[in-house]
Design goal:
The complex is a heterodimer of chains A (201) and B (44). Chain A has 201 residues and is α/β, with parallel strands linked by helices. Chain A is built from nine helices and five strands. Helix content of chain A is 39%, strand content 18%. In chain A, strands 3-2-1-4-5 form a five-stranded parallel sheet. With 44 residues, chain B is of the alpha+beta class. Helices cover 23% and strands 32% of the residues of chain B. Chain B has a two-stranded antiparallel ribbon. The two termini of chain B are 19 Å apart. Classes of the chains: A alpha/beta (201), B alpha+beta (44). Chains A and B meet through helix 7 and strand 5 of A and helix 1 and strand 2 of B. Strand 5 of chain A pairs antiparallel with strand 2 of chain B.
Amino acid sequence: MTDTLPVDSASLREEVKIKYREVASEPNRQYHFHTGRPLTRRLEYDPVFVEALPDAAVESFAGVANPFVLRHLNEDDKVVDAGSGAGFDCFVAADQVGDVGRVVGVDMLPEMLEKSGRTAADLGLANVEFREGLLEELPVEDGWADVVISNGVFNLCADKRRVFAEVWRVLRPGGRIQFGDIANGNPVPEAAIRDIDLWTA
Amino acid sequence: MLEEIGFTEIEVSAPFDTFGGAGGEKNARAFDVSGYTFMAVKPM
């Protein structure tokens, strides 16, 4: 473990994989966080757009905010979704960027990639693709993206500085990051910060 | 951290009650955890 990191990156990654494999395959189970269509309503996504999506596109959604609430994407934007899960935010982005734009979802879980890719094919989305990769090593060329979005994933990465540096690398100058994440108003005890089980519990 | 990396024009949304009514609500309330949308620009 890097001395400055609160938990070991690889160990945390394995815990995250276990949790989100469950979210991919058993989306209707009870978790410590909300999922699916009820969560999209809580996070103020466009209900008309969400209603038109098939269950597979929404049921495994587990974001913590709405990356599009401060600013919509432009019609020709090239977008990277860092930690795309089952693809819900990519489908929202694909609708906003239109046929000229492009959306690349990156996720480390084969189960999520299989689900998001199948849904994109079912929806006939030609402007979306999904790639396997880590946020610490995004499989995207330097300066490609106009926008990087993410939702509830940076908080699951131990080395946030490395992740944000990687976002910086793939953004073009003038590009922007729009992401949902959690923040705490009360201090979290040091022992809790170093308890890897609490990162995903 | 965003500023340290070099991002500018940082904006933060109003909070979302992300965990209200969920199984993890107790911990979320204890540490006053909410969801937020963040936006920032990589300067030209």
